[in-house]
Amino acid sequence: MTTPGEDPRLLVHAYVDGELDPAHALEFERQLAAEPDLAAERERIEALRQAIGERLSPESAPPALRRRIEAAVGLAEPARTASHPSWRALAASVVLACFIGSGGTWLALHSSSTETTAEMVVASHVRSLMASQPIDVGSSDQHTVKPWFNGRITEAPRVVDLANEGFPLAGGRIDVIGRTPVATLVYRRRQHLISLTEIPDGQSGTTAAPRTIAGYNVLSWNEGGVSYWAVSDVAVPDLEMFAKAFRTANP
After folding, report:
1. Residues 47 and 61 grouped into a single domain
2. What gap in Å lies between CA 247 and CA 123, rounded to an integer?
């Protein structure tokens, strides 16, 4: 698909735009699964496209956003009556333009980084359902699934057996959330799949209320320095039962 020495990142836009034929698209998906950096670039492009299409308007940035950015960089100052802008105002305009123009900082335009993470884990769940296999390693044995992540991510995930609670383990995969490869466990609930993504550095002891994004229920909680995100099309009571079973299970 690529010639020797060609940067495969040049094909990311074509893949995201659906311009690759089925054979090349399948080959490129194998590359995405094998190369976290390439998958991260795909995530960045898709996130930027979504932000531009759904969150940004062609109008000027809202005054409130401008004031927040000015305050964040120490450029806020009382309103002036002079007809010419001060150097601080000009500097703030430059900073604001950089914030808006940089794809790497599009998260700053969102009202909540938590909501952004929720959208990304749902997108990963949907992509897994569209793939030929929703998992990279398939096994109901937690002692097979957990070691598979060794060397692939920085921290080993918490993996528990919930078959007795009605949520048998199906396997696991690696997703890329915010350019970071993370572990996602996959459990079953009858004919449904539950993706449980574990993101390090979460604040301990907090739980978010269930929400629905694109028709999928999302439940998150933070424990032991890890943010857990459960996504599925099962009913909310089932998802809450799953979360409770996972949190109380012995490793």
Report:
1. no
2. 24
Provide the domain count of the chain: 3
What residues are paired with 117 via a beta bridge?
none
pLDDT at 111 over 50: no
**Closest by alpha carbon to 230, among 184, 191, 178, 180?**
184
Residue pLDDT, tens place only, 145-189: 999 999 899 888 999 999 999 999 999 999 998 888 999 999 999
CATH classification of the domain holding 130? 3.30.200.100
Are 188 and 227 within one domain? yes
1 found inside a domain: no
| Residue 186 resides in a domain | yes
Half-sphere exposure of 114 (CA within 13 A, CB side): 16
Packing angle between helix 36-50 and helix 22-34, nearest 10 degrees? 110
Q: Are residues 123 and 163 in the same domain?
A: yes
The number of C-alpha atoms within 13 Å of 154 and in the hemisphere containing its C-beta is 7
Residue 49 structural domain: 8-53
> Do 121 and 225 share a domain, yes or no?
yes
- The structure's pTM equals 0.57
Same domain, residue pair 235 and 165: yes
